[in-house]
Amino acid sequence: MYKQIIRPIFFCFDPEKVHYFTFSLIRNLSKIPGIPSLFKSLYVVDDKRLEKEVFGLKFKNPVGLAAGMDKDASLFNELSNLGFGFIEIGTLTPKGQEGNPKKRIFRLKEDNALVNRMGFNNGGVQKAVERLKKNKGVLVGGNIGKNKVTPNEDATSDYLICFDALYDYVDYFVVNVSSPNTPNLRELQEKEPLKQLLQTLQNQNLTKPKQKPILLKIAPDLTDSQLLDIIDIVKETKIAGVIATNTTLSREGLQSENKIETGGMSGKPLGKRSTEVIRFLSEKSNKAFPIIGVGGIHSPEDALEKLEAGASLVQLYTGFIYEGPALIKAINKKILKGMQ
């Protein structure tokens, strides 16, 4: 029904407007008695065999929602009813910011992809905290970044502000230095500044009553040499793991006219490179740390490919938009079938 009726209608309108409309629709529908239970009956696969313990956390199933969809933690409870095992909110910054000028999301229909240059638009970390206080048992990751106006030399303070604000309300953290849509942000992926940032966050983590897993989200555009640096940094700072990957600047092999738009590309064409990065990190590190695989998952087979390459968990974003919530159920069913 989604791909035959709903998606064609949605794809007639501006992607960002459709996003807010869909969020409003799900929120309002979820207020009707019986609707949340209906969503769960349609999409949730409740099976103990899907449970997975990764970096000390127990996930109901290994399929999560990637950051960028629920930036402000405004719909994580309702989205969990669609079958996700965990929801990652953000990217959040200390102060609210508008992000980049609109129009800033573009569909590449022929490629099953999106290009976005959102620019960390969000209402600020404190507003998200107020919503997270109403969590109804959803496992939530907090994706954190820096404000656009904060220079890189002061970036660490922005990440610390978000870390401290979210600490009591999220289950794990994701340090986002790999978005291509905040000027100069990716410079923080260089070895020394990245190591300093992660070590500072880890030191702060150690002052807390219970340490929360900290993960690093990396770009798919890193070279093998840079990926080897990432492995060294993870080992040195003892962070919990890596999310591979964010969006790409590459436009190789794309057919759509919108490929000329600047920003990060996500979706089907990213799948191969994302899996390559996962496999490289897993093999070269000798599986020293968990990896969450994201990028180009549009089918159960795509998800299994990530898991077989070395990912412990997977996340959806663009595949969720193109394929609908039935994809989550299909992936979990495929995983169970492989256990038989």
UniProtKB/TrEMBL annotation:
Pathway: Pyrimidine metabolism; UMP biosynthesis via de novo pathway; orotate from (S)-dihydroorotate (quinone route): step 1/1. Binds 1 FMN per subunit. One of its GO terms (biological process) is 'de novo' UMP biosynthetic process. GO terms for cellular component: cytoplasm; plasma membrane. Keywords: Cell membrane, Flavoprotein, FMN, Membrane, Oxidoreductase, Pyrimidine biosynthesis. PROSITE patterns: DHODEHASE_2 (PS00912). Pfam families: DHO_dh. Gene3D superfamilies: Aldolase class I. Its EC number is 1.3.5.2. It is found in: Cell membrane; Membrane. FMN binds at residues 67-71, 91, 143, 176, 217, 245, 267, 296, 317-318. Belongs to the dihydroorotate dehydrogenase family. Type 2 subfamily. This is Dihydroorotate dehydrogenase (quinone). It comes from Flavobacterium fluvii.
